[in-house]
Amino acid sequence: MRWIRRNLVVLAGLLALGYLLLPNLVVLLFSFNNPVGKYNYEWNEFSTEAWQKPCGVSDICTSVNLSLQIAVYATIGATVLGTAAAFALGRYRFRLKGAANGMIFLPMAMPEVVMAASLGTLFLNMRFEFGFATILIAHIMFCLSFVVVAVKARVMSMDPRLEEAARDLYAGPLQTFLRVTLPLAAPGIAAGAMLSFAISLDDFIITQFNSGPSTVTFPMFVWGASQRGIPVQVNVIGSAMLLIAVALVLGAQLIGGRKKARA
Predict the structure, then answer these.
(1) Domain map of the chain by residue range?
(2) CATH of domain 67-215
(3) Residues 173-187: pLDDT tens digits?
């Protein structure tokens, strides 16, 4: 009992982590299943056929490729615009700054379906042709707030005396930004970019309201396939994304640990 009391917080954290990871482990497990019939809900027998042919289902890899393209472009756009907005909100004073700060949180606070329907109505009124461009604009607008919040938190914690010291050493504005400001803000920018990429990659509601008939992303493919039987390849692609994300996190932890050890 004493050991449990001393490690209660750790045990609670492990239980919460296990609860969050359990669905991912189920997806990984059933990616090796050879189901009977259309639905991959019951374990039948072990098979690696789906891993050998991840594109064995029509249009599945096309939808994954489209999702990755939109996520990359949306991340770049949201990161550039969000970083600029974060520096403006964190460093400068101007009229209606409080209102601007409040507006930043609206996309995160309001239901996603409201923003999706509003953007769809806007595109209809402007006579935009629904497709790749409308999805990309909608994703950038939705991800922008998350980037601003992440970068602004980093900007507010930066010591302005470091930039003043660079200027005292005859560094120009551009050199100071590239050599001092940008490296200091890089962790916040990277966090905002990764969050934007993850949100864009798995978004369904905004994409559904602003997509064209020929633009089917991976979440939309999964939704459509669920009505007639989800193929095992969906589990394979989801498991591959999970494993890649875990590998990136572990790699970053190892690199950070080595840098600390050298220091």
Answers:
(1) 67-215
(2) 1.10.3720.10
(3) 889 888 888 999 998
